[in-house]
Amino acid sequence: MRVLVVEDEKKTASFIRKALQADGFAVDVCDRGDDALAAAAATPFDGIVLDIMLPGRDGLSVLRQLREGKNHTPVLLLSARGEVNERVEGLNAGADDYLPKPFAVAELVARVRALGRRGAESKVPVLRVGDLTLDTILHRAERGGQFFDLTAREFRLLEFLMRSAGRTCGRMSIIEKVWDYDFDPGTNLVDVYIKRLREKIDGGFEPKLLHTVRGAGYVLAAR
Questions:
Q1: In 3D, which of 40, 43, 85, 107 has the Cα closest to residue 67?
Q2: DSSP result, 144-174
Q3: CB of 115 within 8 A of CB of 97?
Q4: Within 10 A of 189 (CB to CB), how many other CB atoms are there?
């Protein structure tokens, strides 16, 4: 599961990130509402932990805009205030769960895990871009009746590109989402894997689906 944590208190954000990572989650963190909307638009998250009290655009505003934009990623709201009317407002705005501060870390992790299960139930199991399909349950990629033998990393890379279909994915974004660690910008790791993937899904097929955007990254799209 990849989770976005939106929390402006640095200590709290670090606490949540470490707890989730210790339980096997991949975690991205931002501290402003506008940054949260940009991150949610660029990356297919499995869950969002969203603090209500944020500088600039508050959490409820972020939540409403996500839902208006047809983003149905499960959201767990956090707030230092636990009044009933605030909980009701959050749930009416489209939140899937609500947790008042202070909270026990074990409960937060359990609730995020439950969000993931809920999201997985509604997530489309088969992704399609042009005539390329990826079955995320059977872990099987196919194009034109030909099945591809993908390594675990190649599969994760293809899934990320297909869930981001039509959007340019930068090298840094790819490495963070597919490998989940920071890296030396000088490395050609992404380019090597992109080349391998392109040979498999585009070799011998037309039209080509995996495109290089010069100076920006890569995009998977049927053009």
A1: 40
A2: TTEEE---HHHHHHHHHHHHTTTS-B-HHHH
A3: yes
A4: 15
Rg (CA), the chain: 19
- Looking at residue 184, its pLDDT comes to 58
Query: Can you give the pTM of this predicted structure?
Result: 0.57
- Mean pLDDT across 191-198: 94
CATH number of 2-122: 3.40.50.2300
Amino acid, res. 69: G
Q: 6-31 pLDDT, tens per residue?
A: 999 999 999 999 999 998 888 999 99
Beta strands in the chain (DSSP E): 2-6, 26-30, 47-51, 75-79, 97-100, 126-129, 132-135, 140-143, 146-148, 210-213, 217-220
pLDDT of residue 162: 92
User: Contact, 197 vs 212, CB < 8 A?
Assistant: no
d(CA 12, CA 15): 5
Q: What whole-number distance in Å separates Cα of residue 53 and Cα of residue 7? A: 8
With beta carbons less than 8 A apart as the criterion, state whether 24 and 3 touch: no
Cβ–Cβ under 8 Å, residues 101 and 80:
yes
Q: Does domain 126-220 have CATH number 1.10.10.10?
A: yes
Residues of the chain with CATH 3.40.50.2300: 2-122
112-143 exposure pattern, b = at least 16 Cβ within 10 A, e = fewer = bbebbeebeeebeeebebbebebebeeeebbb
Q: Does 177 have pLDDT greater than 80? A: no
